[in-house]
């Protein structure tokens, strides 16, 4: 099955990004927090979507306190807010100017992969 063409528009809003993805039969927008991780920028849900996915509000994670000086923002986020096995849905590959994200929808998942024009 051939992938349907889609477009993602990413806008910075404060310290978060808004990701608007649209195609012929698809149109959704999500707010995401961003975290540096080596040559990538990782993304995670925020607000009510974070709480619905992970069962607690952002900032009320388990805070295990095992931070290392060489931890990336992403590693700190994982240590502070997530349990092992928590699923994440996308990232930016800064070397290849690409973005991938799986939008979790009530009628199924929609996966986007694209490069910056």
Mind explaining what this structure looks like?
With 117 residues, the protein is mainly beta. It has one domain. It contains 2 helices and 7 strands; from the N terminus they run ββββααβββ. It has helices at residues 47-54, 73-81, and strands spanning 6-13, 16-23, 26-37, 40-45, 90-93, 98-105, 108-115. Strands 1-2-3-4-5-6-7 form a 7-stranded antiparallel β-sheet. A hairpin with a 4-residue loop joins strand 5 and strand 6 (98-105). The longest helix is centred in the middle third of the chain and has 9 residues, at 73-81. The chain is globular and about 45 Å long.
Protein traits:
mainly beta, 46% strand, 2 helices, 117 residues, seven-stranded antiparallel sheet, 7 strands
Compact summary:
With 117 residues, the chain is mainly β. Helix content is 15%, strand content 46%.
